[in-house]
Design brief:
Length: 229
């Protein structure tokens, strides 16, 4: 069950959103101000945050900045302000989507599900992941092989994290494109191949190998003891 953090100082909004999200199978935790939101985000590591902009203590802009400093947890912004400038600033700060009040709660649930599909459940990857000598920390966006830190470009890191979450599982080029670049990416699957070549070089001989499955995609090969039985 995925956990959604709902942040709004209007109790009726929180209750409405909670009702519809829980009805759709999500677990929900709620905060009434920005400071509480950051505290609950640290404690519960939610899969997505539904975040109002106009909050006491810390506003939604500051909460977004801090969440982005910590990691890649998806954010759906809620606001009564529909100005294009607010929407653009919110997206530039790192929000994944933007919904103006008043809103249809069914649309909110649909957007939550769409964001989670697009991001591949990013919050599942906010905790450090270990595959043999490889350690990937999505919260800090750092990766190490043993004590050696890998100098990765943003897309290289995202690809490595996607494979590390499911070691041994073959991920197609289309799946990798959608999860890392998004459904609107205008390029082609060759882009994945180029990034994989760079990743192999940076992992080196002491990191887990990236295996090409011809005509399908790629997988990160775990050590023998981690292979599924």
């Amino acid at each position: 069950m995925k956990t959604i953090l709902v942040v709004d100082d209007e109790r009726n909004i929180v209750e409405l959103v909670k009702l519809y999200l829980e009805k759709d199978g999500f677990a929900v935790v709620a905060a009434r101000d920005g400071r509480e939101a950051l505290s609950l985000a640290e404690r519960h590591d939610p899969d997505l945050v539904v975040l109002d902009l106009m909050l006491p203590e810390l506003d939604g802009w500051e909460v977004t900045r801090e969440l982005r400093r910590r990691g890649d947890t998806p954010i759906l912004m809620l606001t009564a302000r529909g100005d294009d400038v607010d929407r653009i600033v919110g997206l530039e700060l790192g929000a994944d989507d933007y919904l103006v009040k008043p809103f249809n709660p069914r649309e909110l649930v649909a957007r939550v599900r769409a964001i989670l599909r697009r991001t591949g459940g990013a919050a599942r990857g906010t905790r450090p992941i270990e595959v043999g000598p490889l350690r990937v920390d999505p919260r800090r966006r750092e990766a190490y092989v043993g004590s050696r830190r890998l100098e990765l470009r943003p897309r290289e890191f995202d690809l490595l994290a996607a494979m590390a979450r499911d070691p041994g599982v073959v991920l197609t080029r289309d799946v990798l494109l959608e999860s890392v670049w998004g459904t609107d990416f205008p390029g082609e699957t060759r882009t994945v191949d180029v990034h994989m070549a760079a990743l192999r070089t940076k992992l080196g001989g002491d990191g887990p190998p990236i295996e090409t499955v011809r005509g399908v995609g790629y997988r990160l090969v775990p050590p023998p003891r981690e292979r599924p039985v």
